[in-house]
User: Fold these one by one.
Assistant:
Number 1:
Amino acid sequence: MTRLSQKVISWILLKGENLEDELYGFEKNMLLDVKPKSKVLEIGPGTGINLKYYPKNINWIGLESNPEMSKHIKIKIRKQGINANLLNGSAEKIPLKNNSIDYVISTLVLCSVNNPLNVVKEIKRVLKSSGKFLFIEHVADEKGTFRRVIQNMTNYTPWRFFSDGCHPNRETWKIIEHEFKNVEVKKYFLKNGGFFTWIVKPHIIGKAEK
Ligand SMILES: C[S@@+](CC[C@H](N)C(=O)[O-])C[C@H]1O[C@@H](n2cnc3c(N)ncnc32)[C@H](O)[C@@H]1O
C-alpha cells in the first residue's frame, strides 16, 4: 500500500522538476552520457526526470520503490521513446543477475534508502566488471559546521515525512569509496536553489568501477 509520504514526495518531485533541471541539468548532461545500446539500471528514478538526459538507443531498467511514481515515469518513457522496463521494488535487493548491467545510475537516492551500504553492495553485484556506477548525491556537510548540526536534526523534524525518509547527513562518499576500486568523486555545493535547498547544498558527483 502506498504511504501518504510517498504520495507527498511524488507530488513535490513532479512540481520541482523545472528547478531540479536547472540545478542539475549541466552535470547530468555530462554524467549520463552512456554508451549506445548499453544496459542501464537506474535506481529510484522518481518521476523519470533523468530519462531525457540519456541517449535514446539504450536499454533502460528503472527500479523504483514508490508505486506512486510509475504513472509519471511511464509518461516520460513514452515521450522519450526509450526501450524501458520499469520494476517496482527496492534497490536493497535488486532483482537482477550478477554482472549483468553496463551502468547503474543513482541521483539523489542513497540519502533515502534504508541501508545505503546494502544498496551500494547490490549495485556492485549487478554491474559487469567493465560496468560503471554513475552518481550525483547530496551528502553531509563537514562535521562541526552549522549546516551539519541542522542536517543531524532532520530525523526529528517534519523533513523526514515531507522527503519520505531522506537523511541529509550521510557521508555517502565513504561507502562508495569503501566498496568500489576506481572511484572518481568530486564534492561541490549547489550554487542556486534558495532557502529550501540550503540543507542539501553539499553534493558529490562521480563514477566508480568495481
Ligand atoms: C529524492 S528522490 C530522487 C528521484 C530521482 N532520482 C531524481 O533525481 O529526481 C528519491 C527516489 O528514490 C526512491 N527510493 C527510495 N528508496 C528506494 C529503494 N530502496 N529502492 C528504490 N528506490 C528507492 C524514492 O521512492 C524516490 O523516487
Number 2:
Amino acid sequence: MQISEVLHDKKITDPPLLGDHLAMDLLNTEARSGDMVVDYWESDSDVLRWLRQNEISVVLQPGQLTEGELLSQAKALRTLAFQLISAFKQKQQLQDICKLNTYLHSYVSAPHLAQDGDGKLTITRISRSDTAASMLGQVAEAVAQLLVDGDATLIKQCEHPDCILWFYDRTKAHKRRWCSMATCGNRHKAAQFRKRKS
Ligand SMILES: [Zn+2]
C-alpha cells in the first residue's frame, strides 16, 4: 500500500510508530500527503489510544477531564516540540524551553513494575495525576531528553518529497533515509527503476 493511501484512509490507520523515538512519533501524529496535512489526532480518545500504543499508562476515569482538554494540550505540546526540535536540529538557540517545563512540572508520576509475556520485569513510570499535562508528562520528558542527549544530526525527516515523517536514525552507519523501506523506500526504488527504463 502506498503511503498516500495509508494517509488518506486514516480512519482505518493509526499514526505510524516508526520514529524510533517517542518525540519523533509525537511529531508523526501529523503527516502530509502532497499538499494535504493529515492530523491523526481529532479527539481525546485518539490521543489516549496513541498514549497506550506507546505503552504510556494513564490513570483516567471518564469525566475527569473537560472534553477536548487532552486533545488541545497534546496538540500544543506537539507544536512546541516541533519548534524546539527543529531549532535543535538546525543548531539554533532554543526559545520557549520554559513552556516545556510547564508540562514537565505537571508530571506527577510513580515507579511502576510491569511484566511482559515472557516474564521479563521492567520498571517504568506512570502518571499519578489526572491532569492532561501530567498524562502527557512522559511525552514531554522524551522531548526534553532528546534535546539534552540527542544527536542533532541523527534527527531526520524522510527524504521522499511527499513525506514529512520524522525519525531518529539509530542505524549503525547512520544512513537511514526513509521513514519506512516498505513505503517511501520502495516508492523511491520504483521511481529509479522507471527512470532507468525510459
Ligand atoms: Zn516517508
